[in-house]
Amino acid sequence: MRVRLKLYGTQTLKDKRSVLEGLLVRTRRDFNVSAAELDLTDDPEAALLGFAHLSNNGRFSDQVLMGLLKRLEGERAFFVEDWELEVL
């Protein structure tokens, strides 16, 4: 799953990094996913994040990733501008 975020209150890359590091650690821990920043690394107000979940049950992976998206949409530090889910 790819998620594009609009970050609130981040003016520098250091501000952005502090928001994203905590977010990525929490999502890895809480949802047992792989997570990384994929693009927009030079833009302090936006981020493109990638999340992957491996399972022999595609429906379960969908549930995990949609639960993660719901959690992201409830955050106050950023706005989910767009997302894309791809099942392989």
End-to-end distance:
11 Å
Give the overall shape, derived from the CA principal axes: elongated
The CATH homologous superfamily: TT1725-like
Enumerate how many helices there are, as a single number: 2
Q: Which residues form runs of ≥5 with pLDDT under 50?
A: none
The H/E string reads: EHEEHE
CATH topology: Alpha-Beta Plaits
Q: What's the oligomerization state?
A: single chain
Largest sheet: 4 strands, antiparallel
CATH architecture level-2 label: 2-Layer Sandwich
- Overall structural class, as computed from helix and strand content, comes to alpha+beta
- Helix percent reads 25-40%
- Report Rg: 13 Å
How many domains make up the 3D coordinates? 1
User: What fraction of residues sit in β-strands?
Assistant: 25-35%
Overall residue-averaged pLDDT value: 91
Q: Tally of extended strands?
A: 4
CATH hierarchy class name: Alpha Beta
Kindly report the spatial arrangement of strands forming the biggest sheet: 2-3-1-4
Q: How is this structure best summarized?
A:
The protein is built from two helices and four strands, in the order E-H-E-E-H-E.
Describe this structure as you would to a colleague:
The chain has one domain: TT1725-like (Alpha-Beta Plaits). The chain has two helices and four strands; from the N terminus they run βαββαβ. The protein has helices at 13-31, 58-73, and strands spanning 2-7, 34-39, 46-52, 78-84. Strands 2-3-1-4 form a four-stranded antiparallel beta sheet, covered by helices on one side. The N and C termini lie close together (11 Å).
